[in-house]
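Researcher: Going back to the complex we discussed earlier. I've cleaned up the inputs and rechecked each line, so this should be the final set. Can you rerun the prediction on the complete assembly and write out the structure?
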Amino acid sequence: MPGTAVDLRSELAARLACARERTDMFFELFTPYALYERAIPERHRIVFYLGHLEAFDWNLLGRQVLGLEEFDAEFDRLFAFGIDPVDGHLPADRPEDWPGIEQIRDYNLRVRRMLDEALDAAEFDPALAPHGLENGHALEIAVEHRLMHAETLAYMLPHLPPGAFARGAVVRPDAQPGPRRAGYARTGDPGAVRRILIPAGKATLGLARGAGRFGWDNEFEETVVPVPSFAIDARNVTNREFLEFVRAGGYADRALWEGEDLAWKDEHDVRQPVLWRRRADGWWQRASFVEIPLPLDWPVQVSLAEARAYARWKGRRLPTEAELQRAAYGTPQGTERDYPWGDTDPDPTRHGNFGFQRWDPAPVGAYPEGDSAFGVADLSGNGWEWTASVFAPLKGFERFEFYPGYSEPFFDGKHYVIKGASAQTDRVFLRRSFRNWFQPHYPYVFAAFRCVDGD
Ligand SMILES: [Fe+2]
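Model: Rerun complete. Updated structure for the full complex:
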């Protein structure tokens, strides 16, 4: 069809421009000094991401797909890869090991100019090979990779001192747009949680190859799994509920923690959720930019280890990936839908706290229009959700040859699936097949949890 390639090119070019704007905005949040800070011990300094986004696009699109000549092999390598230490060895580089901001910005500008010129002149034919530039998959990857890192940068914010932010960057949670029911008043109490019975049925994981829709390698192949009946909480565990666990001595009760979780808790002397602060005047939480009195009706952000300990304390457990999938997309009629609320496109003003509307969480259940067919709230938004499922390939998995390191190295039994979305997740990741994963002792990601009952 004449015109299709042109439409695809302009659509993808517009999406790339949008994604660049999103990540450019992040780097404006920091003072120049703070760019060389490391917000999270296990991650790179922020300056790495400034170079990484362009180096990734250059290495994938510029070099591999378009075959352009390299002009700075050192930067291409320096900024190529993020880190995910599973052996406990933390990075030890110093700020002075990294190039200056101006040098990196020059590299970035040059990459963008060269890529944009080459993309403008390249062949885009959707009828040609899959996963190549021809049908836009390489560009989809560049766009989604960049948007994923927008969230990486966002979840680093609460771990930076207030002095790290540029003037005018700081936004208090109560000044952010949100649902009418939003607010972090200490008195806000959603009341006792309802448990919703989900009858036995099926859940479709993944995406059908050849369906023409973009997905990362771990989203293939489409897999239908039977799910026995179970009962699931209608909303996530709140700070208020988790505070009861803390006050009841949950962190000190060794019987609640599994072997490796216990070792992690002891080694790091973990006594409370990572964003909580205990003061003489009570509990506070560090939000993206400022500390606020503990917002009792927000979902609690914890590691999988802490979520598991809480569930055990309650005599309950965490949902599997398939259970969460069924609660989100299944219906009492036995059909499955594209999103928890139905098949209409995600609208972050109605369906949930996602898509960069807010920096911070909102009270649980504040977007009732986003409830699933079974009446389960916040399944796409207001925090990713931990599952009890080890991140593993779906049947028929084939790694992306041009990006072999995306999923396969993490099929190591040490990473667990999280599903859903946070306030700082782009709406593109709300597709049903998208899977995310982290180590159980990583408390930094915007991840919440809920409990289930059933064998
Ligand atoms: Fe990356």
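Model: Worth noting: The first helix runs from residue 4 to 27.
Researcher: Good, that matches what I expected from the previous run.
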